[in-house]
Every structure is written in structure tokens, then in C-alpha cells.
Amino acid sequence: MNALDEKLNRFTKYKISEQTLRKFIDYLKQQAPVFAPHHNGEASYSYECVENSAEVVLSYPRTMQPLKKYFLPPREVLLNFNIKDNTFSKPEIIEETRIFFAVHSYEMASLKRLDYSFTQGHVESNYVSRRKYAIFVGISYTPDESHFSKSVGIDVEETEGFDLFLLPVGDGYFLLEITDTGKRLVEGFPGLAAPDTTEIKTEPLQFKSKIKYHHNRLPAVFDHVYKSKVWDKYAEICVGCGTCNLLCSTCYCFDIRDEVDLDAEHGTRTRYWDGCMLNTFAEVAGGENFRGSLARRTRHRLYRKFKYITAKSEMLHCVGCGRCSHFCPVGISMTDIVNDLITDYEEKQNKEKI
Amino acid sequence: MSKPRVAFFDFTSCEGCQLNKLNLENDLLSLLELVDIVEFREAMDDKAENYDVAFIEGSISTPSCVKRIYDIRRRAGVLVSLGSCAVLGGVNAMKNLHPADWVQEAVYGDDKYLFPSIPVQPVSAYVKVDYEIRGCPMSTPEFLHVLKSIVLGRKPEIFDHAVCVECKLHENECVLDKGMFCLGPVSRAGCEAICPENGQYCTGCRGLISNANVGGAIHMLKRHGFSEQEAKKKLQMYSSLNKLINEAECRHA
């Protein structure tokens, strides 16, 4: 038995059919609002608040926006102000229990990274308030051509951060109790038989997208590729639309805009997701832009994932969800860039040996 | 402080942007609390000698347009171009792609000598433009934002990022992925991605983002099954005066 199976087999688990699982969602809805993947258009998925448990999608490649949208909303009013009285008020953030259902392991890993980013220095209190009582029910998935989370050290069956975890087995699922919170949720649900004692044996999943090096070696590669030609190669086809930033599950940059109402008195300060691939991101007063070219922006984006925050947090800030690759309109793949950089790095190393 | 005197002028255009302002309805009265409208042909008969803010709709396409825009600039404190025709030349500018004689004949036939015409240019080709409001038609929230900013004495924030950003913020399914054409990845946002959100594709009515990678955009559209010719033609619909498009070469077969 491998280490992963050994870990999974330590948890108490129940055999649950899909039908009962949907009843379990209904049960969870009675405890707290439940958010889960839904169909959104022809071949797109998004997390939505569950109205009807029959509409929850259990098998999906990835949602468009990551789960962070519930903790760092795409648009958020930070302040309401009055420029005549010179006063302001903060909208109250309700600290409530919310259940996030059928979440993939890379998504959970990305929240761990956001937790890190938002609790360094000045704590981002809105994020922390929204995050505090969140409950997570994980589910494993079949990697598609863009997933590469294994290459950044995150297993499909990684249970860290989850309260419950679902593993497909036969025509149903194993429901694993990971935390005490998860255990309490399961205990209150009447539809389950006694714990199942069958041994879990996971099949090694084949990822179609892979990074050539072990993830531990990636920060070292990034020590040597700052001036690589690879950046120019991808900048030539990149159109700078910012999709990779906006859908990234660990990107957290935002912009803030003030808008005054027509009464020229009241107004709101709103925060929006921003991205370092966009034209005005590194623009300063006077119109100077510190990262004018797409090559520099692409480099900055990747360094933020594999080096800058990694050096401080000891976590790669790419979780291999494959959103940037899958949703890129020109088809630039994160693993292609990293693998090209590795080739460049190797060539450089060889030259130095001679 | 007296209210700023605001005027609206139309040049070569469909006047849709002006009409769009009259559609503000709920906000019109509050707007009139902020400013005095002193000239607005679409809505009133009065004329004024000078204006604190002049909004210009439409492109410059005749010798008389040139005279008029110089005159307006002299009388105006702040000049704002409004809508794609004024900012980019817009759809009108497509005529520049054809011989002038042929265009005049097609439109006016034998009477073409009665209507002198010059190549279409945006307002900024003739006079200094302080702010630009893009869109075909211009978006009313953006118009209000600019007007409020001018009244409050702050610089309006005009976006220079792609429509993709707004689609992603709204979590719209990508129209390119659905097999449709789309210029969203290189076109300016500010419209709240209204077309993709309603099942249409982005035609790039706000023009391209600054320093757009047009070669990359053509490569992108080819990747989604569209020909280089179609890509260029559609890019030229609103942005035919954008040099980047004419210079662009798709380096990736």
C-alpha cells in the first residue's frame, strides 16, 4: 500500500450512492448555505449557491472563476462615503458558516496560499471574516489536458483543508470524514449505513500536462531564467487580455476605484480584481509604466507563482488547476512555458560546465 | 460656485450617442442639478457663445466639419469626444479604405460634386481632446463618470484593458470557446462586456487596447478557425485608422 492509500484508509468512511449523496446535499442545505459547481453555458462550470441538489455537477474539469470569488469577490464595496460631511462607513461582513461542496484539491490548496497572503503584515480582514467559518467537502477528479497539479505537488486525493472528502468508487462514492466538523455533519445525516471497512486502493492518475522537473527544483530554475528568451517567445503570441490573472486561483491583486453619485455628495469605494498582465497595472503617475511589454509582464506573472512568494512562504503559488492554460484564448500553456524555461536553464547549466 | 455650462455637438455620426444620453431618464434631472446644458441640438434649440465642457459626437469628414470643430475648440474649456466615431473615426472611417471618388459616387451618384468630402478622421486629429468616451454607442455609466469627474475636478478613470477582463469578472462562458468570433481579448473594456454577456461576440466598438498585439490577435483568431482576412476585416470595422492593424503580420502560420 502506498503512502497516499495508507493516509486515506485511516479516515472513517461511508459508502454512499449518488442519489443519497444528493440527499446529503439537501441535508447540508438545512445546516448552512451550500455552494457547488453548476453548469454555466454550453461547456463551462461555475460555483453557485445550491437551489436544487439535482443540479449540482459532481464530475467537472474545473470551474471558470476559482473558489476565491466567495472570499475575495470580483467586485466588493469597501466603503460608503460622503464627501460633503467627510464621513464614511464600512459595509458589515457577516461571519457565517458556508459549505463549499465538491471542491477539487488544487482549489483547497489555493485557499491555503491565499490564507498565507492575506494574513501577512496587515491582515485582510474582509477575507478572513468570510473565510473563518467555511466548511469544505472535497471530491477527486479526472485530470484533463490542462491540469498539472501533481507536478506542483498536489495529489488529486489530497485531503488537507477539507472537512469531508468524496472518492468515486463503483457506482457511488466513499465519503471520508477528515475533521471533527465533517464528522458532526455526517453524524446528523440519517441516510448513511455503518462505516465501510473496504480498503481504498487509488489508481495512479495520468496527468497529460506535466512539468519536467520535480516541483522542489523549480525555484532554483527561476534563479537563472530572468533574462531567458522564452519570455519573448510567449509575448509574441500573448494578447495581454489578462484571463490568466483574473481566473488564477492564487492571484489576489486588486484595484480600487471611487465613484461619486450624481448628487455629488455620496459615493462608494469599490475593489475589483486586477492583473499584472494588464496595461495599467504597473502604470504610475505621469503615465510611466514599469512593465510596458508583454514579455516583462509574463515574466512577472510566473515569478510571482514560482519564486517571489515561494521564497517567503515555502509554497509554490501555482496549484496546477490549469485555468490559465485552459481559458487562454491564444492557447498558451503554463506547463509549456515552465518546460521551455527548464530547457533554457539546462542549456545554460551545460554551457557553464564547459 | 456656478454650475458648469455643458454643450453637445454632433458631426458625422448616427447621433445614437446623443440619443443614448436622453435615455438616461432617471438620472437626467439629477444631472441638471449638476450642470447647465447650454447647447444640445438633439434636445433643444438654444445656442451659446462659450462652454465649460463640450461633448463632441461624430467624426470629421467634410471641410465644414473642420471649420466647426476649430470653432468649438476655441469656445470650450474642456473638450470630450464621445463615442467611437469621435474617438476612433469609427465605422465612418472604413470609407478611407476605398478610393474617395468611388465612395462619393456610390453614395451621392451624379450629385457627388455638391457634397465635398475628405478622408474621415477622429476629432483628435484636428484639435486637442481632453477626455475620450468610447463605445458604439457610448455607455451612459461611463459618460456620467466622466461628467461627474469633471464637475468634481478629478481625472476620470478610463480603462485600458480588454473586454475579456469584464467577461471574466462576470464569469461569462467564453464565446470563442463556443466557436464564435470575438475581438474581446484585444478590445477596450468599459462596456461591462454587454455583447458577450448577451450571446453576441465583441466587435471591438471601443477600439483596441493601447499597444495591442494585433499579430497575436490574428494568430488567436486563426487558431479558433477564422481566416486572416476575416480577422483583419473585422478588426477594421471600428479601428480602420489604427496603424497597428495595417502593419500587423501574423508570424505564426
Automatic annotation (TrEMBL), chain A:
Q: Which InterPro entries match?
A: 4Fe4S_Fe-S-bd, 4Fe4S_Fe_S_CS
Output the superkingdom of the source species. Bacteria
The family database entries (Pfam families) matched by this protein are listed as: Fer4_22
List residues of the 4Fe-4S ferredoxin-type domain. 227-259, 307-337
Q: Name one GO molecular function term.
A: metal ion binding
Q: Which UniProt keywords apply?
A: Iron, Iron-sulfur, Metal-binding
Question: PANTHER family recorded for this chain?
Answer: ANAEROBIC SULFITE REDUCTASE SUBUNIT A
**What is the designated name of this protein?**
4Fe-4S ferredoxin-type domain-containing protein
Automatic annotation (TrEMBL), chain B:
* Boundaries of every NADH:ubiquinone oxidoreductase-like 20kDa subunit domain copy: 14-149
Q: Which InterPro entries match?
A: Hydrogenase_assoc-protein (IPR051349), NADH_UbQ_OxRdtase-like_20kDa (IPR006137), NiFe_Hase_small_N_sf (IPR037024)
Q: Which terms in the Gene Ontology molecular function aspect does this entry carry?
A: iron-sulfur cluster binding; oxidoreductase activity
- Has UniProt tagged this entry with the keyword Oxidoreductase? yes
Q: Which SUPFAM superfamilies does this one have?
A: HydA/Nqo6-like
What domain of life? Bacteria
Question: Which UniProt keywords are listed?
Answer: Oxidoreductase
Q: What is this protein called?
A: NADH:ubiquinone oxidoreductase
Its lineage reads:
Bacteria, Pseudomonadati, Calditrichota, Calditrichia, Calditrichales
